[in-house]
Amino acid sequence: MTLAFVVPGLDEASSEKAIAILQNRLSQEQEAALVLKHAHWNVTGPNFIAVHEMLDPEVESVLAQADETAERIATLGGTPDGRADAIVRHRTWKPFDVEGRQSTEKYLEALIEYYDAFIADDRKAIAELDELDLVSSNIMQDHVAALEKFQWFMRSHLA
């Protein structure tokens, strides 16, 4: 990886490691927005409108997180990769596997499971970034707080 520059207070090796971690998170954030939109289009049955309308603001929230992550990569001198093939290339998590029109319950259960991994991966990134770049770690911490809150919404909807 060739950095455009190194921010003050970080060395090149730490910057490169932080960028790699952030790129992985960016790829999952982008995928999560697609997964949520897929669920938004395909939920059916009881509580359809509530779930359908609940998902769109989360799509926007996750896209805002992706934008913030991409901008942090650029701030660190890297080049964020937002192409569709980057999502697959950087995937270290289990793909979302619900297809077609399904019940709100089935989609919410699958999204909760997806968020379990998403949040766990972000928390792992936080631990790694704590050693490399506290600013990047703080950004990820804010993302986790928002993801956990939405996961609580989904769990509460099924309760």
Q: What class would the helix/strand composition place it in?
A: mainly alpha
CATH architecture title: Up-down Bundle
Q: CATH homologous superfamily, by name?
A: Ferritin, core subunit, four-helix bundle
Mean pLDDT: 97
Q: Helical amount among residues, as a percent range?
A: over 70%
Report the end-to-end length measured between terminal Cα atoms: 47 Å
How many DSSP E strands? Answer: 2
Description:
With 159 residues, the chain is mainly α. The protein has one domain (19-158): Ferritin, core subunit, four-helix bundle (Ferritin, Up-down Bundle), CATH 1.20.1260. It is built from 5 helices and 2 strands, in the order αβααβαα. The protein has helices at residues 12-42, 48-75, 84-90, 104-132, 134-158, and strands spanning 43-44, 102-103. Strands 1-2 form a two-stranded parallel sheet. α1 (12-42) packs antiparallel against α2 (48-75). The longest helix has 31 residues, at 12-42. The radius of gyration is 17 Å and the shape is elongated. The mean pLDDT is 97.
